Amino acid sequence: MTTQVNAQLVAEHVDELRARLTQLSPNRTVRIVAVTKGFGVDAPRAALAAGLTMIGENYAQELIAKHAELTPEEQARIEWHFLGRLQRNKVRSLASIVSVWQSVDRSELIDEIARRAPGARVMIQLNLSNEPQKGGAPLGECGSLVEQARAVGLDVVGLMGVGTVGDPVESAEAFSRLVGLASELGIAESSIGMSDDLEEAVAAGSTMVRVGTALFGARAPRTEV
Ligand SMILES: *Cc1c(COP(=O)(O)O)cnc(C)c1O
């Protein structure tokens, strides 16, 4: 079962989020990826209607199914961002759909994406909290992964990270480290900040936030695999 969304309400939430981002960052545009995992195809539709075209998903099957339900016109307007733990064997089926691979965190994924989607836009995901169960490469591997991705012709557009839930101070420090690395490596985007840690992320220099709950409401717990 997927949770329904109310397009009118989503449009209001998008307006609120835009206003909040402008207030937090008056001189720099922070872009929004609308994260639609856990919701049906009405969520990307509502995001599109509210003027958001970057849509994020975490699970390969869910993304492929949602994409297939959209009309060709809608498909053409959406730029899908893949955000979840990525298995190497899923790259092939996603390659014609995904525009930006945000969760690239290891060497084998770089090679597979370069093979299946030559020249694709990627972000290197960093593990900011050193919790092994979370995705992301250790910060110390960032430079070599970026170098590898560039060497095989991928377009490294950003670094991505997830903050530590319930620890805004720790998240703020980790976000700053990510932004510092992006600047050192000449990488344009810092994809940091979700519904609950937007302030810290934008203060640290986020250029792109990934927001689900604050736009669409609470997700039903994930049951199937
Ligand atoms: C689910 C998810 C988001 C959005 O989270 P919200 O708390 O709903 O805003 C952003 N980024 C990643 C990597 C996610 O998995």
Structure description:
This protein is α/β, with parallel strands linked by helices and 225 residues long. It has helices at 7-24, 42-49, 60-69, 72-77, 91-94, 107-116, 142-151, 168-184, 198-204, 213-216; strands spanning 31-35, 54-57, 79-82, 98-104, 121-126, 155-161, 189-191, 208-211. Helices cover 42% and strands 18% of the residues. Strands 7-6-5-4-3-2-1-8 form an eight-stranded parallel β-sheet. The radius of gyration is 17 Å and the shape is globular. It binds pyridoxal-5'-phosphate (PLP). Pyridoxal-5'-phosphate is lined by residues 35, 37, 58, 83, 162, 194-196, 210-214.
How many DSSP-defined strands? 8
The CATH class is identified as Alpha Beta
Order of helices and strands: HEHEHHEHEHEHEHEHEH
- List low-confidence stretches: none
Write out the strand line-up for the largest beta sheet, numbering strands in chain order.
7-6-5-4-3-2-1-8
3D shape: globular
Ends: how far apart?
13 Å
Counted by DSSP, the helix tally is 10
Q: Based on helices, strands and strand pairing, what is the structural class?
A: alpha/beta
Overall pLDDT score: 95
Major sheet size, sense and barrel closure: 8 strands, parallel
CATH topology: TIM Barrel
Percent in strands:
15-25%
Task: Give the distinct bound molecules.
Answer: pyridoxal-5'-phosphate
CATH architecture: Alpha-Beta Barrel
Can you say what the CATH homologous superfamily is?
Alanine racemase
Helix content: 40-55%
Radius of gyration: 17 Å
Q: How many domains would you count in the coordinates?
A: 1
